[in-house]
């Protein structure tokens, strides 16, 4: 835990696991485990636990991986870095036995192994904690931890009592504060991550893959996760850490491997490599400025929300957004920001409160109503709520504008194509044609399709919910620059984001929410990150000092 | 940093040749199957190639085909309606009841069609208003609608429909061209335009591919689904008029098992049971294929129950073959 | 306490009890133990079938072919018995289970290896299996006179005061319960219904697990084939025609979610019992049996409305003051 902790972070006592738990974790290890631990420590530190060499994988029409190599070392975190579509997820699927490589070799402790199924991967001590936590909502926490390797009684039947007891022990050793008997669906996303980590511990894995584990977490939850990662390192696990975020890579990784377009383009020690070098390897070009500065004249209030309330999700939310303004919404994940936005967009019905758009009271009962009055929403869950997967780009873009492109209800394809072309080209969409299926596009390009779809409706207010979550640096910059362009043209932008640099770099004003309430609205005039984090986490001044 | 303004790239509309994709489509496979069965039939029975027996063909599929047209849209949105045959039973029973009170032909038709729409609206309300899964809802209404018919009729039957009413199910518009066939063809054209040429149809596909994203894109998902259930009810009501007129009597067990035949037609026609894909041309071809098989086997005096083996096998084989073919190609690659 | 109130099985049991009490107030003989046992015995076959269907529904699939499977296996066993009366009945029963399982495996293979949606596969086999009944029997019936005495009488015997048929249901239910809650495969059936993607990452073979569920529903259908034929002592093409929907109805009423992953053995059994009690009560209170169909339809709708009420997401609970209320 030698990494330096930024000053604005809450003190460690708020983390779910304290220092004392490390000892308990070691105590928990069975005797044989302790022996292995000791042996591992003595063995040459530079021998990798897992070695991949010459791995290639192709899909019809796509070369996902070409001759890549990767080494993972016990007690070290190796960051796997690359833009979306660089082949990281394919590699994870090969390591977890979901895909079979076309060529190449995987060695564990020097011995070649095969991973024909997900089961064989876990038998070889490889386990993964996924981006979208893949667990079972309807099952209990204990069963989530032990599914597939549950303790049995002497009749070969699952021993529920023992399973629950051992699950509780593991959770307690992490100071997770989770009841092993509770149904998983009652837990929040951060706690679900802890369950996933507990599962990794319970299978006695030697290799733990973390596929963008922080993508859905708030700053505080991320800090908690870092502590857990340190614990896993102490426990001599080899960790593969996949991330887009440079601050966290530099914070916790020991080594890095960079992929670009399915090839390995660089690897080394984090300590010895400046960030700019890695960025260059990643994109094959240099990115000078992630958050473009812009100057816009801010006009009159366009949308005013007052006293918006919902029985369980948020209470008395009031704010106003003006013409040409980017209004940031910051808070921990689960603070109710998306819920407020979805109520404004007509997805859910607020119990009280008023919305005034351009001087007229509105009460959208469905997204269709909201779009009609000029409010559009770019959702966080791109694949589920953003793009119509399985349909081509032009049908996605024209869908909300069919009223404009058609004549008395009959389709006019030529109009649809020209509309789609106008807006996708403004966003520099990378695709082979307008008829390309959106599900074959990268996350960043899908996001561009969603934004193009809304721009074509000529909205007044555009709400962007985590607009750059999980998209690569190149697209991220394009989205940021485009947001600047939008407000310059007189649109109002509401941006929900959990990424501090994004919020601070883009917003004119910032609304901070906590537990369903607006705690403050601040003008972003050299706003300090500490202020936002403290407000969002609810830390009182004296404690933080 | 990429320069937004200066990229002179132009995205083409499409890359593949539309003609090539039309030739390689599911519909062309169905045309081949239909031709094959047609040729096999003409060899198997000397009575097959005759205008009147070919005309009989239409009675084999027109009523189910009419429902299949609407059902295709329902299935494309990812829903299903298992209650269509029971709607026929209820509509037919209430027509019979109206007859007992001296209703004339126009009233009978209005009752049949009206009951159909109301039943469809009830399904639609349960699915969209109460947000219930359509498969369970329509299993329930399937029992309920036919159950009401049983309560009204018990083991009795209604007979004595007027002569001019019988024309709907037995009449010919011109020479061997039956009213049922004409109605089916007109409905097919209407549904083709609705699904493939209008905003409504485009939204139907969007809902089937991703209902959540469709709603987030401003599509009024519930309204469209409700309309589709009403439409299926309407077509079932029309089918009830035709079938009752053709049989000349109503029993509560009328049209038993129709729902499965209709769904078989739709799926055979290339509509994905998972939603999001399918075409009206495919459904029309599938209806024709099932009609041809039924007629051909009928001419060979094969009993109906054995024909169902053919239909069932056809359903599975036609779905399985392309999958097997793809798997073999992937294995070789 | 809160969890108890949300317990679906409890409510269903109360509903059954309410029907019993209601009928008994008018017709006291209805609640006599002997009559209750008769109802249980009458419902035994449906209960077993509902369990088989539940296994399939849990995996986000559906088996529409169970009734046809039952009819086909039933016809095969009846004809075998008529032709070779010497074959001992336990062997015939084992044969039924194997034949039924094989038919189920046919469904399962198509779902597993070719990834054809289960509703399409079983829609096809629904008609194929029933057509085969006609093919092997030539449309003829096998009646009581052609069946051996043992074949008919086995399930009518008594053991510990209960008919053997009821014991079949009890044993199947106990084995099924143990399988679903205490074995890796049983839990896998739940897991792939809850989250198929997560199941793959957990090392569960989703396709093979679905296959297993279809084999189970097939095996139970096969067993039910013998029990049905020997109970109603007639084997024909029409046997159990349309019964697949009654089986699904029992599951739905029992709270098995058609979306997969959620449902209990007790629920499915109670769902079947509810239909059994209602069907037995109708003639007693003098309602025409023609009301049966409409009532079970209404019961399905009511059950699914109530289930949805219980499952409906009330949104996330974010506000502190709303915690514990929702």
Please tag this protein with its features.
heterotrimer; A: 545 residues; alpha/beta; Rossmann fold; 4 domains; 6-stranded mixed beta sheet; 20 strands; globular; disordered N terminus; B: 333 residues; mainly alpha; ABC transporter involved in vitamin B12 uptake, BtuC; two-stranded antiparallel sheet; 14 helices
Structural commentary:
The complex is a heterotrimer of chains A (545), B (333) and C (326). By secondary structure, chain A is of the alpha/beta class. In chain A, the strands form four sheets. A six-stranded mixed β-sheet of chain A has the order 6-7-8-3-9-10, with helices on both faces. Chain A has a six-stranded mixed β-sheet with strand order 16-17-18-13-19-20, sandwiched between helices. In chain A, a hairpin with a 2-residue loop joins strand 14 and strand 15 (360-362). The longest helix of chain A has 16 residues, at 219-234. Residues 1-44 and 541-545 of chain A have low confidence and may be disordered. Chain B is an all-alpha fold. Chain B has one domain (48-302): ABC transporter involved in vitamin B12 uptake, BtuC (Orthogonal Bundle). Chain B contains 14 helices and four strands. Chain B has helices at 18-23, 26-44, 51-76, 84-100, 105-129, 134-153, 163-170, 179-197, 199-209, 211-216, 221-247, 258-268, 280-299, 304-332; strands spanning 158-159, 172-174, 177-178, 249-250. With 326 residues, chain C is an all-alpha fold. Chain C has a single domain (8-20, 31-309), classed as ABC transporter involved in vitamin B12 uptake, BtuC. In chain C, 71% of the residues lie in helices and 2% in strands. Chain C has 14 helices and four strands. In chain C, the strands form two sheets. A two-stranded antiparallel ribbon of chain C has the order 1-4. Chain C has a two-stranded antiparallel sheet with strand order 2-3. In chain C, a hairpin with a 2-residue loop joins strand 2 and strand 3. In chain C, helix 3 packs across helix 9 (184-194) and helix 5 runs antiparallel to helix 11. The two termini of chain C are 15 Å apart. Chains in contact: A-B, A-C, B-C. The interface between A and B is large, with 55 and 36 residues.
Architecture blueprint of SSEs:
The complex is a heterotrimer of chains A (545), B (333) and C (326).
Chain A: H1 20-28, H2 31-42, E1 50-59, E2 62-72, E3 77-81, H3 88-95, E4 103-108, E5 111-113, H4 118-123, E6 126-129, H5 141-146, H6 160-173, H7 189-202, E7 207-211, H8 219-234, E8 238-242, H9 246-252, E9 255-260, E10 263-269, H10 275-283, E11 301-309, E12 317-322, E13 326-331, H11 337-344, E14 352-357, E15 360-362, H12 367-373, E16 375-378, H13 382-386, H14 393-398, H15 402-405, H16 413-426, H17 443-455, E17 461-465, H18 473-488, E18 492-496, H19 500-506, E19 509-514, E20 517-523, H20 529-537, H21 541-544
Parallel strand pairs in A: 3-8, 3-9, 6-7, 7-8, 13-18, 13-19, 16-17, 17-18
Antiparallel strand pairs in A: 1-2, 1-4, 4-5, 9-10, 11-12, 11-14, 14-15, 19-20
Chain B: H1 18-23, H2 26-44, H3 51-76, H4 84-100, H5 105-129, H6 134-153, E1 158-159, H7 163-170, E2 172-174, E3 177-178, H8 179-197, H9 199-209, H10 211-216, H11 221-247, E4 249-250, H12 258-268, H13 280-299, H14 304-332
Chain C: H1 2-5, H2 8-26, H3 33-58, H4 66-83, H5 89-113, H6 118-137, E1 142-143, H7 149-153, E2 158-159, E3 162-163, H8 164-182, H9 184-194, H10 196-201, H11 206-232, E4 234-235, H12 243-253, H13 265-284, H14 292-311
Antiparallel strand pairs in C: 1-4, 2-3
Helix pairs in contact in C: 2-13, 3-8, 3-9, 3-11, 3-12, 3-13, 4-5, 4-6, 4-11, 5-6, 5-11, 8-9, 9-11, 12-13, 12-14
């Amino acid at each position: 835990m030698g990494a330096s902790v930024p000053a604005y972070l809450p003190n460690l006592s708020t983390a779910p696991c304290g220092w004392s738990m490390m000892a308990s974790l070691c105590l928990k290890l069975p005797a044989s485990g302790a022996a292995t631990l000791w042996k591992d420590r003595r063995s040459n530190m530079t021998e990798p636990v897992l070695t991949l060499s010459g791995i290639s994988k192709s899909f019809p029409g796509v070369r996902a991986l070409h001759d890549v190599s990767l080494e993972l070392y016990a007690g070290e975190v190796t960051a796997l870095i690359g833009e979306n579509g660089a082949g990281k997820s394919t590699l994870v699927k090969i390591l977890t036995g979901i895909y079979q490589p076309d060529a190449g070799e995987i060695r564990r402790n020097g011995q070649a192994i095969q991973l024909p199924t997900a089961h064989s991967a876990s038998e070889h001590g490889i386990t993964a904690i996924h981006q979208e936590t893949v667990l079972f909502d309807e099952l209990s926490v204990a069963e989530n931890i032990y599914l597939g390797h549950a303790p049995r009684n002497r009749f070969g039947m699952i021993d529920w009592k023992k399973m629950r007891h051992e699950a509780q022990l593991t959770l307690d050793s992490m100071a997770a504060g989770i009841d092993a008997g509770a149904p998983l669906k009652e837990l929040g996303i951060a706690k679900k991550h802890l369950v996933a980590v507990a599962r990794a511990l319970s299978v006695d894995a030697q290799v733990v893959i973390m596929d963008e584990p922080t993508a859905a977490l708030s700053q505080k939850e991320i800090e908690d996760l870092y502590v857990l990662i340190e614990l896993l390192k102490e426990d001599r696990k080899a960790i593969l850490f996949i991330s887009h975020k440079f601050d966290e890579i530099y914070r916790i990784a020991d080594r890095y491997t960079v992929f670009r377009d399915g090839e390995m383009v660089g690897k080394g020690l984090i300590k010895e490599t400046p960030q700019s070098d890695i960025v260059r390897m990643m994109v094959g070009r240099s990115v000078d400025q992630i958050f473009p500065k812009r100057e816009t004249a801010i006009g009159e209030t366009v949308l005013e929300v007052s006293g918006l309330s919902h029985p369980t999700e948020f209470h008395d939310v009031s704010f106003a957004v003006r013409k040409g303004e980017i209004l940031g919404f910051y808070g921990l994940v689960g603070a109710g920001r998306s819920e407020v936005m979805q109520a404004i967009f007509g997805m859910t019905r607020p119990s009280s409160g008023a919305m005034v758009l351009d001087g007229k009271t509105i009460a959208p009962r469905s997204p269709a109503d909201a779009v009609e009055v000029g409010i559009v929403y770019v959702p966080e869950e791109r694949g589920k709520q953003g793009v119509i997967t399985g349909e081509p780009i032009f049908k996605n873009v024209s869908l909300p504008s069919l009223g404009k492109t058609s004549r008395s209800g009959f389709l006019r394809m030529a109009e649809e194509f020209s509309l789609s072309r106008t807006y996708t080209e403004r966003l520099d969409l990378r695709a082979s044609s307008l008829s390309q299926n959106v599900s074959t596009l990268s996350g960043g390009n899908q996001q561009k399709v969603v934004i193009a779809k809304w721009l074509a409706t000529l909205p007044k207010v555009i709400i962007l919910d985590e607009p750059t979550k999980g998209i690569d640096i190149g697209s991220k910059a394009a989205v940021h620059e485009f947001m600047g362009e939008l407000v310059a043209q007189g649109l109002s932008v509401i941006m929900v984001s959990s990424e501090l640099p994004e919020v601070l770099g883009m917003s004119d004003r910032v609304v901070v929410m906590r537990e369903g309430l607006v705690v403050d609205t601040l003008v972003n005039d050299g706003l300090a990150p500490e202020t936002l984090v403290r407000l969002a986490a609810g830390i009182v001044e004296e404690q933080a000092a | 940093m990429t320069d937004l303004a200066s990229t002179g790239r132009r995205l083409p509309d499409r890359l593949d040749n539309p003609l090539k994709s039309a030739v390689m489509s599911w519909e062309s496979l169905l045309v081949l199957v239909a031709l094959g069965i047609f040729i096999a039939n003409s060899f198997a029975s000397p009575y097959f190639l005759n205008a009147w027996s070919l005309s009989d063909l239409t009675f084999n599929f027109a009523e189910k085909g009419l429902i299949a047209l609407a059902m295709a849209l329902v299935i494309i949105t990812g829903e299903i309606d298992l209650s269509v045959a029971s709607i026929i039973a209820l509509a037919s029973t209430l027509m019979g009841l109206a007859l007992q009170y001296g209703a004339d032909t126009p009233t009978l038709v209005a009752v049949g069609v009206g009951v159909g729409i109301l039943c469809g609206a009830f399904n639609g309300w349960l699915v969209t208003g109460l947000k219930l899964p359509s498969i369970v809802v329509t299993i329930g209404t399937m029992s309920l609608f036919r159950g009401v018919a049983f309560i009204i009729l018990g083991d009795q039957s209604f007979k004595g429909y007027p002569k001019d009413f019988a024309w709907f199910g037995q009449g010919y518009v011109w020479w061997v061209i039956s009213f049922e066939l004409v109605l089916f063809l007109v409905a097919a054209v209407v549904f083709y335009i609705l699904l493939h040429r209008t905003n409504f149809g485009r939204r139907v596909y969007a809902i089937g591919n991703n209902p959540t994203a469709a709603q987030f894109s401003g599509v009024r998902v519930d309204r469209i689904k409700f309309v589709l259930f009403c439409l299926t009810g309407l077509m079932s009501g029309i089918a009830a008029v035709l079938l009752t007129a053709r049989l000349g009597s109503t029993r509560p067990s009328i049209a038993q098992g129709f729902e499965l035949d209709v769904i078989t037609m739709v799926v055979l026609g290339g509509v994905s049971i998972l939603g999001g894909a399918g075409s009206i041309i495919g459904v029309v071809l599938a209806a024709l294929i099932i009609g041809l098989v039924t007629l051909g086997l009928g001419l060979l005096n094969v009993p109906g129950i054995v024909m169902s083996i053919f239909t069932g096998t056809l359903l599975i084989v036609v779905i399985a073959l392309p999958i097997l073919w793809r798997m073999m190609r992937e294995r070789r690659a | 306490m809160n969890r108890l109130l949300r317990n679906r099985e409890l409510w269903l049991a109360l509903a059954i009890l309410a029907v019993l009490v209601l009928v008994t107030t008018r017709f006291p003989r209805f609640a006599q133990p002997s009559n209750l046992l008769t109802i249980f015995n009458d419902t035994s076959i449906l209960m077993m079938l509902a369990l088989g269907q539940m296994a399939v529904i849990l995996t986000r699939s559906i088996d529409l072919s169970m009734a046809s499977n039952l009819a086909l296996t039933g016809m095969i066993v009846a004809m075998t018995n008529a032709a070779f009366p010497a074959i001992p009945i336990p062997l015939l029963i084992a044969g039924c289970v194997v034949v039924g399982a094989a038919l189920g495996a046919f469904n399962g293979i198509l779902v597993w290896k070719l990834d054809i949606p289960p509703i399409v596969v079983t829609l096809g086999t629904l008609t194929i299996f029933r057509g085969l009944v006609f093919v092997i029997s030539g449309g003829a019936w096998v009646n009581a006179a052609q069946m051996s005495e043992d074949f008919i009488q086995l399930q009518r015997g008594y053991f510990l005061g209960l008919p053997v048929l009821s014991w079949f249901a009890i044993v199947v239910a106990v084995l099924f319960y143990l399988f679903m809650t205490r074995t890796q495969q049983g839990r896998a059936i739940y897991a792939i219904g809850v989250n198929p993607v997560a199941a793959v990452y957990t090392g569960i073979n989703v396709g093979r697990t679905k296959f297993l569920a279809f084999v189970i529903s097939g095996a139970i259908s096969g067993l039910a084939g013998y029990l049905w034929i020997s109970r109603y002592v007639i084997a024909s093409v029409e046997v159990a025609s349309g019964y697949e929907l009654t089986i699904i109805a029992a599951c739905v009423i029992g709270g098995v979610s058609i979306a997969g992953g959620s449902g209990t053995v007790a629920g499915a059994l109670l769902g079947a019992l509810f239909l059994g009690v209602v069907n037995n009560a109708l003639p007693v209170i003098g309602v025409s049996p023609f009301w049966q169909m409409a009532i079970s339809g209404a019961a399905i709708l009511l059950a699914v409305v109530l289930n949805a009420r219980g499952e409906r997401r009330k949104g996330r609970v974010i506000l502190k003051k709303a915690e514990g209320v929702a």
